[in-house]
Every structure is written in C-alpha cells, then in structure tokens.
Amino acid sequence: HGTSTINDKGHLTIGGCDATELAQQFGTPLYVMDEALIRQRCREYMEAFRASGLQFQVAYASKAFCVMAMCRIADEEGLSLDVVSDGELYTALKAGFPVERIHFHGNNKTPQEIEMALDAGIGCFVVDNFVELQLLNELAKDKGKKVNILFRITPGVEAHTHEFISTGQTDSKFGFDLGNGSAMEAVRTAKALSQIEILGIHSHIGSQIFEVEGFKMAVEKVAGFAADVRNELDVTFQVVNLGGGFGIRYTGEDTPLPVSQYVQAITDAVKEYFTQHQYPVPQIWVEPGRSIVGDAGTTLYTVGTYKDIPGVNKYIAVDGGMTDNIRPALYGSKYEAMLANRANDPAEETVTVAGKACESGDKLIWDLELPRANTGDILAVSCTGAYNYAMASNYNRIRRPAVVFVKDGQADVVVERESHDDIIVNDVIPARLSKEAL
Ligand code: LLP
Fold first, then answer.
1. Each residue of 102-132: pLDDT tens digit?
2. Which one of 163, 200, 239, 256 has the fewest beta carbons within 10 angstroms of its own beta carbon?
3. Which positions, given as ranges, span the membrane (predicted)?
C-alpha cells in the first residue's frame, strides 16, 4: 500500500527507500513512516469536507502519533490538532503549531495543564465534566481570559456492537450523559459562568469503526439535544465535533470504507438532522488519529532466534516487540508482515513472531506465513503508524526505536533512537546509596 513496492533486488521499498538499507543505516527496530501517505490521508479528509460545502475543521488526534515533525505535517496540511495532555500540548507548541487550532481534551485535566493551555491561548477546551467546568472558569477569571468550550457528551451509541445499543456507552468515564439530563445541566451551568464561551458539542463513539451507522446515530442524537438546548436555554451550538474512530485495514479481516465515504455520511447526516429541527447547520469538526497515520507506518525488525517445537509451534524472535508495539498483547490486535530483504520468496511455514521482552505474552503475530526466516533477515510489520510509538515503553529498559520519515527516496530521522544514557537520564542515586559512601 501507499508508496511501497518491491525493487529488483527483491527488497521491500517504502517511500522510494530500500527497507533493508534503512535497517542497515538506522538500525532496528525502526519505525518507518511514509510521509506521502500521511499527507494523502490528510488531503482526503480536507477534500471530502470541502466537497460538503459545510464549514469544518479536521483535527488530527495527536495521541495516535505525537512528535514534532508530525505536528509540522498536520499544520502544513491545514489540519487542527487534538491534544490530551501537557506533553502533547508542549510538543505541538514547540513545533510551532498555531495554538488557536489546538483543542484540549481529557477527563482529568490538571490545574497546571489548564493554566498552561490558557497561557498559550488555546483554541478550545473540550470540557468533560462539572469539576473541570468550574475549575476552568476560575482559572480563566484569574487570568482575565475568556475560553471557548465544547461539551463532551456521551451520546449513548456503542459503535462496536453491531446493534448500536443505545445505553451501551452510558457507563463511561468520559463526558456528560445525554440520557440522564447531566448534559443539559452542563450547558445551563456553563451559560451562567462569566469566562465561558459555549462553542458547541462533542461526541466520540469509539475507535477502529467500519460502518457509518454509528456516526449517523450520534449525529441524530446530537441534533436532537442541540434542539432541546436551544428551546430550553436559548443557546445555539455553532460547532459539532464528532470525534475520531474511522477504521483502517490492518489485515484482510478489516473492511474500512474510504475516508470520503465516512465524511459524506457524516456531513449528509448533519444537514439532514439539523435541518429537520430547523436548526442552523453547524460547523463540523472531526478528530481522526489512526486513519491519518496508521497505515503509513512500518516497523522493521531484525530476526534473531528461531525455536521449533515439533508439532506444536515455531517461533521467530525479533529485536523489539511489546515495548514498541503493545497492541497485540493488550488488545489481541492483528498485523501482517513480510521479510523485507526477501520480499519475493514464497511462504514456507507458519510462525509466531515473538518479541524480546521477559513476558510470555510478548508476541506480535500469532500465525504468520513466511519463508524460512534466518537470523539477520529483516521483518517488516505493516500498519504500525498509530498507537505504536505513542504507546511504546521502556519495559526491561529496552530503548525505544528511532522514527524516520521517508519520501521520494529520502529518509529523515524525526525521533532519534534512545541511547543507554537516555535510559538512566532521570535516575538519581541518593548520597547514602552511592558507591563512594560504602
Ligand atoms: N477523539 C477522541 C475524543 C478520542 O478519544 C480518540 C481516541 C480519537 C479522537 C482518535 O480516535 P482514532 O481516530 O485514532 O480511532 N490505543 C488504542 C486506541 C485508543 C483510542 C482512544 N481515543 C489502540 O491502539 O487501538
């Protein structure tokens, strides 16, 4: 997919770069991101929304992969940015991302985070609960500032069951509940707060969603609520943010729609349901994360050991694993992979790909068809661009890999590989434990 091909050496290439050479040049494990594909996904969203004729913002959900170079691409492509912590906010600000296009999410923003965002002049807060609403108003008052907010509501749509059960989502740590009146109460409260400017409403129904029905149902509920709010409180929402969650293809089991179809379903539903309530059609914002960066990522590993348990299983072990991709261990997520240096060799056996961490559950792929892999072969796991680097850890004090962006045959490091010194950079030995004190 993307700009991946196989060259005349039988090597996988990504963005015009030979993956085997990338592995030699930068070492493994290595996250390789196809920059052209990231930009293509950004443009698919922007173009689909432009075609709708509605006012819109596409906010990249930076949690999926938040590094400064990625913030630069999101900015260049005209996207906004969704951040959920001071760390993501700091990354964006340091990358020079326009602060008025940054949206701050989270169910437990600390006072320090709120102050940092207020000082920076953030575009809007997505307010999650009553405690935050009051705190935000107080802190903004201290600073003599007004703040734009969206209310995060739980629409009662559970996108992962095929029935879209309407109460499924009520037991959630996120947002104001639509069903029990707390969302209405939130708007009433906010209306009376001096520093709060009500911009609109936000709903996120889940992640890795393939069907449009859940989104349509969320729009219907949000439109109904907006109409109720207008009647009861005389407040009109200018913005409806429908969150992220647009699915991608990790393996043949996944059946996502093209980006344009999700966008069209949403914008059509917005026009239909808001018009039904004689409501001025609001701006539409979305927050895709995975579908911007997921399929642009490939992780390269070097194959190390091989273990054959006759009649039971065969393991190949790579020089990374759950520390750079926790998703298989955490969610049972499935991935596809190939030998990057022998891309034309036919599959000969089924293997389990294991990582190098001290944990039996450290597996990346359970049943991968591969040629007989040798020590030193380069394994390329595809679709690792979202929630891989972002969720990487130093378990076993394994160093986190480098990230390179590839484009038109050029490879640029955007995150350096961690060094041994990085591993101990925050360690402190108290004087009474120092070797000299012995
Ligand atoms: N907006 C909100 C409010 C969210 O909570 C999320 C994801 C997104 C946008 C972006 O969703 P996306 O388009 O990426 O599906 N670690 C998990 C995914 C967690 C998603 C959390 N929220 C994974 O690796 O699958």
1. 999 999 999 999 999 999 999 999 999 999 9
2. 163
3. none
Give me the interface pTM, i.e. the ipTM.
0.99
Mean pLDDT in residue range 269-274: 98
- Pairing state of beta strands 378-382 and 337-339? antiparallel
**327 in ligand 1 pocket by Cβ < 6 Å?**
yes
User: Domains in the chain, start-ordered, CATH in brackets?
Assistant: 5-34+294-424 (2.40.37.10), 35-291 (3.20.20.10)
In the annotation, is 358 catalytic?
Answer: yes
Mean pLDDT score, 345-359: 98
Any idea which of 78-87, 163-172, 179-188, 206-215 has the lowest mean pLDDT? Answer: 163-172
390 Cα–ligand 1 center, Å: 12
| Ligand 1 midpoint to CA 162 (Å) | 19
Q: Is 301 annotated as a binding residue?
A: no
- Does the pLDDT of residue 163 top 60, yes or no? no
Q: Any idea what the Cα angle at residue 367 is, between residues 402 and 394, rounded to 5°?
A: 30
Q: Residue for token digits 């070797």?
A: 435
The reply to whether ligand 1 has any atom less than 6 angstroms from the CB of 164 is no
Residue 437, Ramachandran bin (φ over 0: left; ψ between -120 and 50: alpha; else beta): alpha
Could you identify the residue written with the tokens 């190098």? 356
Q: What is the pLDDT of residue 166?
A: 43
Tell me the CA–centroid distance for residue 315 and ligand 1, in Å. 32
